[in-house]
Amino acid sequence: MNNRFDELLIETKLRLLQMHHDAKSGHLGGNFSCIDALMALHHLVMAEEDRFILSKGHSAAALYATLWSLGKLSEEALTTFTRDDSLLPGHPSGAGIPGLQFSTGSLGHGPSLAAGLALAARHMGHSRRVFCLCSDGEWQEGGCWEALTFAVHQRLDKLFILIDQNGLQGFGRTMDVISCEDLSPRIAAFGAEVRRVDGHDPQGITRALSPGEHGLPVVLILETIKGKDLHFENSLESHYLPLTPEQYLAARNAIMQNGGAR
Amino acid sequence: MRKAFAAAVLENHNTEDCFFLTGDLGFMALEEVRAAMGGRFVNAGVAEQNMVGVAAGLARERLRVIVYSIAPFCYARPFEQIRNDVCLGGLPVCLVGNGGGYAYGHMGPTHHALEDCATMNALGVQVLAPAFDEDLLALVGRFSRPTYLRLGLDARPAGTQAPVYNPWREVLPGKRGALAALGPMAGVAWQALQGLSQEERPAVWAVCEFDEFSIPEAFHRQIANGPLHVIEEHVAQGGLGTHLTMDLVKRGIGCSSFTHRFALGYPSGRFGSQNFHRAQCGLDTQSIRQMITDQP
């Protein structure tokens, strides 16, 4: 991993942290479990013509920060996050944000939308890839399985679904809520090509997003830690609670020490 | 109208930029469409939420998409996908619901669509309710924004010709006020009242669109000094009656009396054919005729 990306990753995480702190906004946990993957995807994997859908819309801030790191969102725009008269609500709108094509936030929609984009690309003879980032709890939505079935049947091999498997959802651990610690065997049983990777390793994520080998959609399970580097790392509190000023400063220090690429 | 719909698709929309998605429906109606469209005809299976999401994805890439299913599975099951994925993006997806109202009769209440127009109107979807088979050529493929096309059964009297398509058409002249009928109910009213003299009956209007209440002046004149009747195979809330009366009130136009016949659901708790349910709601030919002749 190059030093510049490493620096940018830390810078972006700090900016993400500040966004949440300034806005007194929750949902930090899911943002910090996927920021490494979002940065790897947008800086190291995706080409300009590729498509991305943030199905786990509650991680909007991580996407906004990533787009900021790419120069596609301004510093001024980030300061409006979840404020009045903003283009950056807590769950993203499909209007006015570079590269975003849909309004997401109600879980389970992204895989179908992504399948539609992939089908359109194939019909039009484009080689573009479609990436869709989901949460693990999101796969309790039946729509995800409808979409997976469809994508496998249609052999949409340019479709990559990433699942942020941090093991925590809104009101409990996924293994306690729905008896599911690992989605891999279930998704493999549906016929997709399943891969697993450390979701905090940008280089590993980049490698794992190589083309599929069987002409099928690829599902990449990201093994992540909810609220990584925050004081409430891997705890339910990270799903909702905003940061106090003291926690904010502690998190800044932790990110500066640990937050770069592995 | 399924056959007319399929013919209209083949006539105007078998183009490289048009996809047709079906939720595993179309037996004895869509076979020719499937053969003609090849890979652009996709049987998405019994998974309507995914089907509408996929349609949104296709439409976002500037493709035009027709989504077809039995009406309730088209507008109700994937409601959130229509709301979030199609409507928030203003995407050119045409949702086609076959069997508006009680059209699926004996199949039972899960297959009826009694609140579809209201539901789609509430989302800002363009609602089109063709009255006659010929209307399909004019209506299929209105892709400028999210659209819901409600298919029913053309019920006009045998041997008659439908006037050229217009959102509001007078299909039977009359001199006793006016009757506005939603979609195929115009044909039912036409059947019911054609035997009465013009002095005894209202003018019958086929109303096929909600969006632009460019109500003809002739209709205003007819109700200015006479009764207004509205009939629709749809619940009262959010249907033609509520839209029309609100529009008339805004314009300051009154009428001497107002009768509204609409879908009542299942008032007897019994189930049957489309005509059985229409009769229970006063929407069959006999009830409509009586509604007119009983009026003092």
Describe the structure using short key phrases.
heterodimer; A: 262 residues; alpha/beta; Rossmann fold; two-stranded antiparallel ribbon; 10 helices; 7 strands; globular; B: 296 residues; 6-stranded parallel beta sheet; 12 helices; 11 strands; Transketolase-like_Pyr-bd (chain B); Transketo_C/PFOR_II (chain B); Transketolase, pyrimidine binding domain-containing protein (chain B)
Task: Provide an overview of this structure.
The complex is a heterodimer of chains A (262) and B (296). Chain A has ten helices and seven strands. Chain A has helices at 3-23, 28-45, 60-69, 75-78, 110-124, 142-153, 174-178, 184-189, 202-208, 245-258; strands spanning 51-54, 130-135, 159-165, 168-169, 172-173, 193-198, 218-223. The longest helix of chain A is centred in the first third of the chain and has 21 residues, at 3-23. The model of chain A has no long low-confidence stretch (mean pLDDT 94). Chain B folds into two domains: 2-151, Thiamin diphosphate (ThDP)-binding fold, Pyr/PP domains (Rossmann fold, 3-Layer(aba) Sandwich), CATH 3.40.50.970; 168-293, 3-Layer(aba) Sandwich (Rossmann fold). In chain B, strands 2-1-3-4-6-5 form a six-stranded parallel sheet. A five-stranded mixed sheet of chain B has the order 7-9-8-10-11, sandwiched between helices. The relative contact order of chain B is 0.12. The model of chain B has no long low-confidence stretch (mean pLDDT 95). Chain A binds chain B through residues 93-95, 101-106, 108-109, 111-121, 123-124, 142-143, 146-147, 149-150, 153-154, and chain B through 19, 39-40, 42, 44-45, 47, 49-50, 52-61, 63, 80-81, 84-85, 88-89. Chain A: Its cofactor is thiamine diphosphate. Chain A: It holds the Pfam family Transketolase_N. Chain A: InterPro entries: THDP-binding (IPR029061), Transketolase_N (IPR005474).
